[in-house]
Design a protein that fits this description.
141 residues; mainly alpha; 6 helices
Length: 141
């Protein structure tokens, strides 16, 4: 789990309206990837090349699009608005071989994670990530 920020930041919620959805997605991408890497390492001590392949699979747009679908019904109205702000960015350009829908939903997911992180809502981030991890692991089994 992502641990508490330092004592000066703990409990202080930033005004997320000051940040663009792009900036929140940029931060959320790092938060989400850290969670993925942490879970992979804690599950099994494997060669780094295997860890990397597992991480890449879980941070790609198609996987994050599935994660979006898992958490969307679990969100508060405020969280859903942050998710949709990221998803609806006009500046989002998927890679040539990418699916536009998946890429937009992945950006929405990252924007939500950035939004929650800026607010210091680490418990909620971990709760949503656990829901994603549980649901998508069950689908793959």
């Amino acid at each position: 789990d992502i641990t508490e920020q330092n004592n000066q930041q703990a409990g202080q919620k930033a005004d997320v309206r000051l940040y663009s959805p792009q900036a929140l997605a940029f931060l959320g991408d790092a938060v989400y990837e850290l969670l993925v890497r942490e879970r992979i390492v804690l599950k099994a001590n494997r060669p780094v090349s295997e860890l990397h392949l597992q991480a890449v699979e879980q941070v790609r747009a198609s996987y994050q699009s599935q994660a979006y679908a898992v958490i969307e019904p679990l969100l508060t109205e405020e969280e859903a608005a942050a998710l949709k702000r990221g998803r609806n960015l006009n500046s989002v350009k998927p890679p040539k071989n990418g699916n536009v829908r998946d890429y937009r939903r992945a950006t929405g997911l990252e924007s939500l994670f950035g939004y929650l992180y800026v607010q210091g809502r680490l418990e909620r981030i971990n709760e949503l990530f656990l829901a994603i991890e549980t649901a998508l692991e069950e689908q793959q089994a």
